[in-house]
Write a structure and sequence with these properties.
Blueprint: H1 3-13, E1 19-20, H2 33-46, H3 60-72, E2 83-85, H4 87-96, E3 103-105, H5 112-120, E4 124-126, E5 132-136, H6 150-156, E6 160-163, H7 179-182, E7 187-192, E8 204-207, H8 213-224, H9 229-241, H10 244-269, E9 273-276, E10 283-291, H11 294-304, E11 306-307, E12 309-310, E13 321-327, H12 336-352
Helix pairs in contact: 1-11, 2-9, 4-5, 10-12, 11-12
Bound molecules: 4'-deoxy-4'-aminopyridoxal-5'-phosphate (PMP).
Length: 366
């Protein structure tokens, strides 16, 4: 990530009244606070596992839950193959670092911290033509739509890192068949509860290809021994007391409504842009024909009282194309209009500024 973006994010968080269209956070109101409070209290007082060391693989109950849900979608996996990770982020970092000098292709734009995890783990991150392919199944971040060409991917015979972070958050509820079902020997399957339940528990998972399981477990152990016992115990308890499908059905409905209002507000107030109408997830991808430094646009936006995520963070190489990821999930719907108006003003002002070339290389390595 361009260090200027991190610095601006920190600075803008301290300015009162700034409307946040950046960040990719799930809605605060959807976090199941009461149920998790009960689960955490229950396991802390009564569960022998919650405060103790556990195994590197992680909670058997959660692994069984994951494999049951995958089986319902056509992928039959032994629960011993699942590693509970500290979020999908750790799963990506492990998967991306397992083979020295992998060339991982990620497409034109993809999840910014996957690019960083792969690059910092020693892989070469490329737009196309890699020997491993990273895809975000069901709903791509940042595009908000399904970009996966299943047939082409399966035809390659190459290793695939398949990130299902948003697969259950398609507004139409059509969760795609896992690629793991069709290429079990070469898919690194990645999942998370961060978008559907809450990111704070830091629970995700990795299902490595069978031949790589032992090495992946060794890597997990070297990183942090195991995922936090208390989070896993609380989530296992939580699962026993809630209907997960009801939770995601409600999230889909809330996010679909917010997405529609956000798209509408941006179309009305921001000139010279094109929007990919989202099919799910938490964000919208907004493209312009402008060129320049999108961090300068972010600075201008903050001075207008709004944030967004600069599109360059999502690109595998340096770029001066101005695109924005706009998060609709964690802003009250009545604030979309003022936020979009501010964004429109910021873009208009940015277009009047003298063009300065992008000089700072945005990535440590890519
Ligand atoms: N993959 C994608 C596509 C994401 O958008 C994110 C979070 N923004 C992650 C993985 C990481 O999620 P987690 O909180 O589970 O580490």
């Amino acid at each position: 990530m361009d260090p200027r973006i991190t610095e601006l994010a920190e600075r803008s968080a301290t300015i009162p009244g700034v409307l946040r269209l950046g960040g990719g956070l799930p809605a605060n109101e959807l976090l199941p606070r009461a149920e998790l409070a009960t689960a955490l209290a229950d396991v802390t007082s009564a569960s022998p596992d919650a405060l103790q060391y556990g195994t590197a693989r992680g909670s058997a109950a959660i692994r069984a839950w994951i494999t049951r849900r995958l089986a319902d979608r056509g992928a039959h996996v032994d629960a011993d193959r699942v590693i509970i990770t500290a979020g999908a982020q750790q799963a990506l970092a492990i998967a991306g670092s397992m083979v020295a000098n992998w060339r991982i292709d990620v497409g034109d734009a993809t999840y910014a911290c996957a690019i960083d995890a792969f690059a910092q783990g020693g892989a070469h991150v490329v737009r196309s033509g890699g020997d491993v392919h990273y895809v975000i199944a069901g709903v791509s971040n940042p595009h908000g739509i399904d970009k996966v060409d299943r047939i082409a991917l399966l035809r390659t015979g190459d290793p695939l890192i398949v990130d299902e972070a948003y697969a259950e958050l398609r507004f139409d509820g059509r969760v795609p068949r896992p690629l793991l079902a069709d290429a079990p020997d070469r898919v690194w399957h990645v999942g998370t509860i961060s978008k559907t339940i809450c990111p704070g528990l830091r629970i995700g998972w990795l299902i490595p290809p069978p031949g790589a399981l032992s090495a992946a477990l060794q890597r997990k152990m070297a990183l942090d021994l195991q995922t936090a016992s208390i989070s896993q115990a609380a989530f296992a308890r939580f699962l026993a007391t809630v209907d997960y499908d009801d939770i995601i059905a409600r999230a889909r409905m809330v996010y679909a409504q917010r997405a529609a209002r956000c798209v509408d507000a941006i179309r009305r107030h921001v000139d010279g842009i094109s929007i990919t109408e989202p099919e799910g997830g938490l964000s919208i991808w907004v493209e312009t024909l402008d060129r320049g430094d999108d961090v300068e646009l972010l600075e201008t936006a903050i001075s207008e009282g709004v944030t967004f995520d600069p599109g360059s963070s999502f690109r595998p190489g340096d770029t001066d194309r101005i695109c924005m990821r706009v998060t609709f999930s964690n802003l009250a719907p009545e604030l979309f209009d003022p936020a979009a108006r501010r964004l429109g003003r910021a873009l208009a002002r940015f277009r009047q500024l003298p063009r300065r070339p992008r000089t700072i290389s945005q990535r440590i390595a890519s």
